[in-house]
Each structure stands twice: as C-alpha cells, then as structure tokens.
Design a protein that fits this description.
heterodimer; A: 334 residues; mainly alpha; 13 helices; B: 440 residues; alpha+beta; Jelly Rolls; MetI-like fold; six-stranded antiparallel sheet; four-stranded antiparallel sheet; 10 strands
C-alpha cells in the first residue's frame, strides 16, 4: 500500500521478505521458537560431529557404550552418587565444596543413564541428529519433485499438465502412512527406507500449490516481457516465476519438518527406522519398557524434546505462513 | 447431476489404474525377489522357482514372450552362476568363462517337462566345438564353428522326453582344441502368450479378490482381513464421530468467542495437543491411566471396557488438529458478506452461527469427514498393536514386521481403492450440497 503522500516524494518500501522477517521478529513467542529451532540445529550438528569422530576412529561412541555399573542412574539432582558425595564430605563441608561436587556430578550424566548405563543426554543429542537428517533429506527429496513438477505443469499446461495432475492425484490418493511403511519395508530396514517413504509420498501438496500459483503467474506482464525478450521456458520458470512462488516452498518446508519428525519417531518405534543408533523413536520404545521399573527420566527427556521441537516448528511454520502468504492464513494466531 | 457423477466416475479410472501400477511396481519390481525376501537365504533354487510359480512371479513383468528362469540365472552383476565353480575344466574370469575341455552347463535343477526354453550363447574360439543336448526330440548336436571375433548362437530346447532334461554340454571336436571362451550364456523360458505377465496376473487376482495366503499363518489373507475389520471399526467409529462432534462444538465455541480469551485458549491448547507425539499419548495413557491408577484394563480385547482407553487416546490425539481445521472453516465463513448482512439486519449471534454459518460450513466438514472414512478401515496401526485389538492395524504391523508381503499388499490395495472411492463420494456429496460445483 502506498500511503497518502504528495506526488513525487520518495517512499521507503520494504520487500516481501524484509517485511516478513520484521513481522516474525516482532513476536516474542516466535523469537522463542526460532531460538528453540536454532538450539535443535546446533544439537543435531554437534551430534553429527560426535558421530563422525567416533566412526572415523572406529570406536564405540559413548552413547552406545554399555556400562552396567552405571545403569539406572536418575538425572543428577535425584541421583544417589551426588547425595553420597555430599555425605562423604562430612557435615562441616563448605557450601563451595558441595556446589563443586554438584556441578561435577551434573556434567557427568545430566539426564541420567538408561538400563544399560548409557548416557541419556548424549543419546538425546543423537536422536536430534537423526530427526534433523530425516527432516532435511525427506525435504530434499520431496521439495524438488513438487517444485519441478508443479512448475512444469503450471507453465506448459495442456497434456503435460494433465499428465502431472494424473501423477499427483494418483500419489495423493494412496493412503500415506501405509505406503510410507510399505516403501520402507521394500527398501529394507534402515534410514534409507524412511527417507524414501516419507520423501516420495509427501510432495503432492506442494506440487498442487505451486501449479495453481504458476497458472496465475503464467500470463502476468513480467512473464510476457521475459518471453518477448527471448527467454526460454526453463529460464522463465526458474529465474522469473520461481522467485515469486518461493514463499510456498519455505512454508511447506517449515510445516513438513515436524510431521517428518513425528513419522520418523513412529517408524523407528516400529523397528523400521535407523538400526543400532539411538533415535527418538527407539528411545521411546526402550524407555516404555523401563517405565514399569520406575525409570521415568528417559521417557520424560524424549517426550519433552520431541514436544518442544515439534511445537516450535509448528508455531514458527504458522507464523511464517501468516507473514509470507496472507491468503493461506489460518487466522488463528492469537 | 447424473452427468457430473458419471464424469467423475470416468476420471476415477486413470487414477485407479495409476494406483494399481504403483502398488504393483512397489511390490513386484522395487522389492526385489519376494521369494528370497520371504524364504530367506538358505533355500534351493527349485524352492524359489516353485514359490515364484505359485505366486506368478516367474512371468515377464508387463509384456513379453521371454522370461528368466531360476534353473540357470545370469545377471549383469553375476554373468555366470556360481555353479560353474564346481565344473571341472571351467575357469571363471571377471566377465567371461573359459572352457578347456568338455563341460556341462550346471543347472540348479531340471526344469519341468513340456516347457520351451531358449539358450543364447555368445562365444569366441579358434577351435571347433560342439553343443550337445537332449530334449523331447532326443539327442541333438550342433557344431560351433571357429569364431575368433565372437559369434552368437541361440537354440530352442523343449524340456521333457526320455532323459531329456534340457542339459547342455560343450564338447571339443578333438582332444587338442584351443579353449572356448564363453562371453555370455543365458537361458530364457518362452511364455505361451505375451500378455500372460505378472501385471496381468496381479490384476486378475485382484478382480477375483484373491489376495493369496499369509506366509506367517497360512490363512487366506481375505479371511484374515474379514476377521480384522470388525474390531477396527469398533475402535475407529466412536473415535471418528466423537472427534467430529467435539471438534465442531469447540470450533463453534471459538467462533462465538472469536478473538477473545476462550478462543485463544482453545487455539493454544490445540496447538499444544497437536505437538504431542502420538506414541507419547499411548505410552502415558497406558502408564498412568491403566497401570498406575488402574482405571482401565491395560491390554486385550474382551469387553467394551477394553476399548475405553484406546477411544480416549484416539480422541485426544486427533483433537488438536481437527479443532484448528474446523475453526478455520468457521472463521472463513464468519467473514463472508452474508454474515455481515445478517448481523447488520439484527440477527442474533446464536442464529447466525447455527443457521447460517454452520450450514455453509457443512460443505468442507462433509468433504473432510468423507475423506477420513477410509482410515477407519485400516484402524489405527499403533492403537491396535499397543492395546492388543485384533484389527487390521494390528494385522498390518505384524505383517510389516514379519515381511508378510501378501498381507501388506492386500491392506494397501484395499485401503487405496477405498480411498479413491471415498474421494469420488466426497466430490459427489459436494456437488449435491453445492450446485455451483456442478457447473464448473
């Protein structure tokens, strides 16, 4: 909107992206969400570093090291070693010494250990690594398929459009979770099946959105101008139209991340996902059995981690959608 | 209206075809050999062949006269089967086989009588060799002339007859022939009709509703599914309707208090509910409500009491998402012109909500509900396996874990067909309640 201004004055305008960033940053809850996402990313990257460090040295990483003498240790504030250490210091111990013991203990197993004496905090970080990988790699499979097919269908129309619409209606009319599981079964156990299953089944929504948007843009003056200047269809699609519909990609990415994480948790819980490494689903399935023995901390840690990350992505995705595409607004941001 | 329905029905056919092709590719092509997957590694080729024959996997995929046989398998990666290692006088190199004296082609088993096979040999030699085989027509012999630059020979063999098991022998004409290099050797079986393919077999069995037998239990899959559908529906129908009613009520409530604190509270709570992982609902419900507080039975399927906890969990886990969806639908309607007009002429909020908004919002609600119907059939994979409800979800999870391909395929195919049909029904309902759709 151009405000009322005398003719000829220079009006400072902001781009769509600048506007969106400002609108996102203005809200405190979204700032917190972005912080959580940043922390999650950092944890995932740190997990990657740890993983490769031990893998290249061919050692058992600490999150897989079994040590029965440390099994079933609760998180530090509840753990017995701390109480014992304080007792050993005697009644006249200085507060400083107690504090030092406490801190030393805190860094040993801040979230306790599981039934095999493995550190829960380190396993949680590895779980973040797997979740992050799943989110990124499934997006790398699904988003290019959706974007390219959507652009081609919308731009060319005609029989190409019919063909692509047929393809995505076919994929969209297959029950998602069942097919994801079936693809994973066919691809074999391990992360590859999870990537392929989720990636190949979830591109249809984005494809449909992009196609509809490109159809609107196809005959806009800027596209006609580009065509008049002799730009080929590939150049028009990717250099001219794509930047104008790219917000859809960003929104779709931020909204698919939490659902990919949820699906991964579900699949590795069923034993189809990653093998031999801790992921959140595997931790839940392990912690579930120990819950009956009173080992509450592993379950709590994973639950809270999944909840916080998914919530942050959900809220950030909604906020992003409101900021970038007012027409898609759900209208429910308070 | 009838015209519209018919048009929609016609559009259904390509989609149904596409879905069947994808399912077929998924299970018959991408999955590798189902026989090896199911029978394990330590089985003989004959067992694999019998398995394939029983399930129609020994046919060409889509179309063709020639198909591979497990009696003599050669692929690009393994051009000569490992049986050659036991043959005296044969030397295996990376991409060729060198024969220094007479040798018989090692077959994994003697093929069934009465089949037509084709051997294709590409060889290179400076000497004179002979091919000998016995088939339904008796002993046969073919001279392989010297071919220093390589030559391809193919011969048709009909298995059967007296001692005619289709075995092939390479024999040098004399003692002192230079060695024979075999570059390629393949055996193919001829199909009687090129249309007799795996895909045709797949479709034919689908039409007959023949889904094969479960590998784990040996029961017909269809019977297993018929037994499983009852418990699944018992579990899912109350969840479905409960959620529908509760979510619409809450959404109307939100619309009533639009942008005031009850609305914001409900929205916040539903976003929070949405973010709780499904597994966590189940594990926590089982631990606290069933195990600690002993309000519900934990596991089993004996009386309606066993369904209470799964109902509750199913209801709550889906509630967040549906409240948000229906609230969006309601609020979309709330900003329409007709609502403004109604308010302007003094219609009270109650009447606007229930008579105007709810009626118009019924269209997306109807679509959404009809589309959710096929999921009632699969039940909930997790709820059923956690609470021991012997429904289709339980069946599928077990089948996935034990790689019971036939069961998984049956569940997937039926689920997909139901989904496509529900899509059609929802479109027709849409057209029924909203005449504008028909005109497009």
């Amino acid at each position: 909107m151009i405000p009322d201004a005398p003719y000829g004055t220079l009006i400072r305008t902001r781009s769509l992206w600048g506007n969106a960033v400002r609108r996102l940053w203005r809200r405190l809850d979204l700032r917190v969400c972005l912080l959580v996402i940043a922390l999650f990313t950092a944890a995932a990257l740190w997990g990657e570093v740890v993983y490769w460090r031990y893998r290249l040295r061919d050692q058992t990483p600490p999150y897989n090291r079994v040590d029965m003498s440390r099994a079933y240790r609760p998180p530090s504030p509840w753990s017995r070693p701390f109480a014992r250490a304080v007792e050993a210091l005697g009644p006249r111990a200085s507060r400083f010494a107690i504090l030092r013991k406490g801190i030393a203990n805190l860094f040993e197993h801040p979230l306790g250990t599981d039934n095999l004496g493995r550190d829960v905090a380190q396993r949680l970080i590895q779980g973040a690594r797997i979740a992050f990988q799943v989110g990124i790699i499934t997006s790398l499979i699904a988003i290019p398929i959706g974007v390219i097919l959507g652009l081609i269908a919308g731009y060319f129309g005609g029989w190409v459009d019919d063909l692509i619409v047929w393809i995505y209606s076919t994929v969209a009319s297959m029950p998602g979770l069942l097919f994801i599981l079936a693809i994973a079964m066919v691809a074999g156990k391990g992360l590859k099946g999870v990537y392929l299953g989720i990636g190949l089944m979830t591109w249809t929504g984005l494809c449909r959105l992009i196609r509809a948007e490109v159809i609107k843009h196809r005959d806009r003056p800027y596209v006609t101008a580009a065509r008049t200047l002799g730009a080929g269809p590939v150049r028009i699609m990717f250099r001219h139209i794509l930047p104008n519909v790219f917000h859809l990609v960003i929104i779709s990415f931020s909204l698919r991340f939490p659902s990919a994480i949820g699906t991964e948790v579900f699949m590795s819980f069923l034993g189809i996902g990653v093998q031999g490494e801790p992921s959140w689903g595997i931790m839940i399935s392990n912690a579930r059995l120990r819950l009956w023995h009173g080992m509450w901390w592993e379950m709590t840690a994973v639950t809270v981690a999944v909840f916080v990350v998914v919530l942050a992505f959900n809220l950030a995705g909604d906020g992003l959608r409101d900021a970038l595409d007012p027409r898609l607004r759900t209208g429910d941001t308070p | 209206m009838i015209l519209y329905s018919l048009r929609r029905l016609l559009q259904l056919i390509p989609i149904l075809f596409g879905v069947l092709v994808v399912t077929f590719i998924l299970f018959n092509v991408a999955g590798g050999s189902p026989a090896a997957l199911m029978l394990g590694k330590n089985v003989s080729a004959r067992q694999l062949e019998e398995f394939d024959e029983q399930r129609g996997f020994n046919k060409p995929l889509f179309f063709g006269y020639w198909t591979a046989t497990r009696a003599y398998e050669s692929h690009r990666e393994v051009p000569f089967p490992p049986g050659w290692r036991q043959v005296e006088g044969a030397r295996l190199e990376r991409d060729r086989l060198i024969l220094e004296r007479a040798a018989e082609v090692p077959l994994a088993f003697a093929p069934r009588a009465g089949l037509l096979f084709r051997w294709t040999v590409r060889y290179r030699t400076a000497g004179v060799y002979q091919l000998e085989w016995s088939d339904a027509e008796g002993e046969n012999r073919l001279d392989l002339p010297p071919a220093p630059r390589g030559r391809t020979v193919s011969l048709l063999v009909r298995s059967g007859g007296e001692g005619g098991d289709g075995r092939l022998r390479f024999a040098p004409r004399s003692e002192r022939e230079p060695p024979l290099e075999i570059l390629r050797l393949t055996l193919e079986r001829r199909m009687e009709s090129p249309w007799d393919s795996q895909f045709a077999y797949f479709l034919r069995r689908l039409l007959r509703l023949d889904f094969g037998e479960s590998l784990a239990t040996g029961q017909p899959v269809l019977q297993m599914m018929r037994e499983g559908i009852g418990p699944s529906l018992l579990l899912m129908i109350p969840i479905f309707f409960g959620e529908l009613v509760l979510a619409i009520t809450l959404a109307l409530f939100c619309a009533w208090f639009r942008d005031r604190w009850p609305d914001r509270l409900i929205v916040t709570v539903s976003v929070l509910l949405m973010s709780v992982n499904y597994l966590v609902w189940i594990v926590m419900g089982q631990y606290w409500l069933a195990f600690r507080w002993n309000w519900f039975p934990l596991w089993g399927f004996e009386s309606w009491r066993y369904l209470l906890l799964p109902w509750l969990i199913g209801l709550f886990s889906g509630l967040g998402g549906s409240v948000r969806f229906y609230r969006t639908v309601m609020l979309d309607e709330m900003y329409r012109d007709y609502v403004r007009t109604a308010f302007a002429k003094g219609v009270p909020l109650r009447v606007v909500l229930f008579r105007h908004v709810l009626r118009n919002a019924m269209i997306p609600i109807l679509t959404q509900s009809v589309m959710a119907l096929p999921f009632l059939y699969t039940g909930s994979l997790l709820l059923e396996s956690f609470f021991g409800i012997p429904g289709l979800g339980y069946l599928s999870v077990n089948a996935l874990n034990s790689l019971d391909v036939d069961v998984v395929r049956a569940v997937v195919v039926i689920g997909t067909v139901l989904y496509v049909v529900a899509n059609l029904v929802s479109d027709i309902c849409y057209a029924l309640v909203d005449p504008r759709v028909r005109l497009k």
